[in-house]
Amino acid sequence: MKKGNIYNKLNEYGRSDSYPYHMPGHKRNVDAESGLFGVLGRIGDIDITEIHDFDNLSDPDAPDGILYKAQKECADFYDVKKSFYLVNGSTVGILSAISACVPKGGKLCVARNAHKSTYNAMCIRDIEPVYMYPHLNKQFGFFEAVTAEDVEKAICSANSDCEINGGNSVAAVIVVSPTYEGRIADIKAISEVAHSYGIPLIVDEAHGAHLKFAKDADKFGISACDCGADIVIQSVHKTLPAPTQTAVMHFNSELVSLDKLEKYLHVYQTSSPSYPLMAGIEEAINYMKEFGQERLEFLKNNFVGLVATINTQCKYIEALDYRQGIQDVGKLVFSAKRAGISGIELSGMLRDKYHLELEMCVKDYCLAMFTVCDAEEAFDRMKGALLDIDRQLQEKLGNSKFDYSTKPLSSYSGNETVIPLAKAWDMSSERIFLEHAAGRVCAAFVGLYPPGTPMLVPGEPVSEENVREIMEYITLGYEVTGINEGLIKVICQ
Amino acid sequence: MKKGNIYNKLNEYGRSDSYPYHMPGHKRNVDAESGLFGVLGRIGDIDITEIHDFDNLSDPDAPDGILYKAQKECADFYDVKKSFYLVNGSTVGILSAISACVPKGGKLCVARNAHKSTYNAMCIRDIEPVYMYPHLNKQFGFFEAVTAEDVEKAICSANSDCEINGGNSVAAVIVVSPTYEGRIADIKAISEVAHSYGIPLIVDEAHGAHLKFAKDADKFGISACDCGADIVIQSVHKTLPAPTQTAVMHFNSELVSLDKLEKYLHVYQTSSPSYPLMAGIEEAINYMKEFGQERLEFLKNNFVGLVATINTQCKYIEALDYRQGIQDVGKLVFSAKRAGISGIELSGMLRDKYHLELEMCVKDYCLAMFTVCDAEEAFDRMKGALLDIDRQLQEKLGNSKFDYSTKPLSSYSGNETVIPLAKAWDMSSERIFLEHAAGRVCAAFVGLYPPGTPMLVPGEPVSEENVREIMEYITLGYEVTGINEGLIKVICQ
Q: In this structure, which of B168, B326, B447, B448 has its CB flanked by the most CB atoms within 10 Å?
């Protein structure tokens, strides 16, 4: 594989005798003092600004600009009308997509376990969420993917409500797929539902940039780009070999204004994008075009093997079964709750003794991420550690039985809204002790992050049950966002 | 100088035997295939996500988190209440500051030559600009810094207008200092004016992160952090040795809600910030703490010497005089218009023959940036090239005289507004040929970028004069943003 065009051009300029009387301030002059700079010692020579012949991300030169070309190749590969490189994460894609699709005061159909950037977009754009509460996975307690029925039900109920009580009908649908835990939604069916109501579908495919690179899509799950979604946002840093903070957004709509989408994108994204980050996006896509299929097969074989080993050889540790097309091959959900061990404890064991660092853990399960960049070591070390821990548990516990029924949070079955989200977000608030908060209206997003599913959002009343559950999480050692030093933000009375 | 804490910790983790079952997808496993990746081959091993013990930029761990500590040290040095690392450029600081200071529908006192992020913030927040048109520099035609009188006049006139006609009074003032051309405003006087009206002052100090590091501030210009500004935003990548896309925001206010500012910051900034970028900010500040004073003295001596040489030895080329405390030592404004040569021509000569790449050029002048990272080569090569060009011009032109009076754009003395900015930005628009646009209402930002001072903003009528001027720029070879293939966006009639 040859290196990316952007990288090569940066490298060539860095090595030339051209002198920079332009930003960045380091002037690529950090090699001489390389002992001083860790980061610039590595990338200083390829870190430039928008100079002559290096194109401009906010206004790419067609057809010979390097950024225009790279984004065009990306669009061609993903088979969409237009692709955008993002250097402010998927966050900036979500903000732009929602701003372009939903007018101020409009309604957005959204799963409760949406990423916080979706909630943020609704808050700053005065958008009213129409929540979908997908089914809960009984084994581990996480949200399954949203279904076409969930979407249809939500749109119908919101629209008929507005026929009776006035107000806006639903303007767009946003769906996360694959979810954080790897559940892949039937985007084809969902986009048909959305389009039958004449509204666009945004897919937060932050965890699914790799799907498109499988030659036999059915074996891995079909990318939303091939299922009729209007806008698809992918964190290339999450599942592809790209630097953190990089993402792409694909536009493929007849319903959404491309002009609007671009306008908002240029609002929310820096006017000084990092060329190394952009070069990193191009290289990740190039790599996947050449090696993606082979690496995905390797990933799948090893992943499926690992799940099977855990579930056949372990007594206490259990893993979420792999189901082709339903579960992503990269997300291993597992727990030792049959041994009375919480996610945080299991994750701590793996870190301290085996030096395995997980993506996240909640009370009832842990999540380990595997990608196309994992070699056999990744699977071997995880397998070895889990079998080892299970053996020790067997020695210690013998035939003891634990009550390990999964109890999802009360808020996962639906909260009341007493003040609209965006309004509550903007109201005066005060911080009070959590134990005194029952009966007050929440002014913050409260939840575990990751995974980021909020237990409470601004405008929802805090119940006794919420207080009890949050306290329990804190006592167990989890960090609960929205709670600082025992204080929670509530709306001033 | 020892490397930054963040960098050292990343490096240590990268070298450990700890295995990452977390993002980013490259799994730091790119060394084995290092031939394939330019960018990740360089930073892959230090590029991580928010794992255990690495803190979280959206919610820093006090007091032992590395990001909390680094930002605290930054605040201590700049002598402000709180500092924020920004990885989405100064853009995200400007968006957050304006969102936190000005309510929707409110008024913001703003210089016409504000950065486009300021305009963008006003568009998405329904904010009405109260424009200040600073004096024009007669020699080159750029905007001088805003003065306290400009600010007082603008606030007074807007407030008395709202007393008569109703509406909101001015909610905040934003000022750019140093300007793109290096003009430093009297922020102390300006903040006194703003505070006398009980409103906060935001300073876009994108080009002034270095000022604070001078021991004798009067010799370089005083940082807005020391002049009573409420929020100060600095692009550390512009004047310090930090990677492109990095910036810091300082909060030092009694008038603005810190809570609100943080809330908006977390909306507009990625939830997956790049650790290498953050480490780069820390290293730039560490470097400046240790070497800043010495490097600033070096920069100043060489810069002043260069300006003097140009202005004493050149016949046709002229440079903006250096004035201590008024002009930044990093921005060399110069031109050869006395020889009838435009900025774009001069810039082209410097690039093609001498391999000197400038920051920007407009019709009447060029801008070269010098920073603390420039060695003598920077000054020698520029001096050599300009003297050489001037010599050739003398040989060629002898005693010819050219009419070189600077003619600022007509829009620089004020445009009419027929539709409020934010409303016009959001209205339906169409693209028509520029030559047919006179009489229509503009729907885009039209101007040269850089420097980014708009000739027209949404909601302003397009005049015959505007059309003529824009055509002239395009004919001269400049890229005018807002014009694509001869088409301009205007509001649908």
A: B447
